[in-house]
Design brief:
three-stranded antiparallel sheet; two-stranded antiparallel sheet; 5 strands; alpha+beta; signal; 84 residues
């Protein structure tokens, strides 16, 4: 029975951090990224990825060891080639 209660609590832990999609992000420009989190969430790293390319599709690291408390990060997006 304890095992089931642990499994039931896992989805709540996984959903503690929610990143909001930036409004009108532009390649090479400054944008703000907002999120909501739980009080015990640790620092985290924010990646820019394209899952449709290669195994990881990593385009850049936007923030490392991001402090979760401010719930906002201002970053300059990397310049990416235009796609059709």
């Amino acid at each position: 029975m304890k095992f089931l209660s642990v499994l039931a609590s896992l989805p709540a832990l996984a959903l503690a951090l929610t990143v909001q999609v930036p409004t009108n992000p532009v390649s090479g420009q400054v944008t703000d990224i907002y999120w909501t989190n739980g009080p015990s969430d640790p620092e985290w790293t924010l990646f820019l990825m394209n899952a449709s390319e290669t195994a990881f599709g990593l385009k850049g690291i936007l923030g490392e060891n991001v402090d979760q408390a401010p719930e906002k990060l201002t970053v300059t997006l990397p310049v990416l080639p235009e796609t059709e």
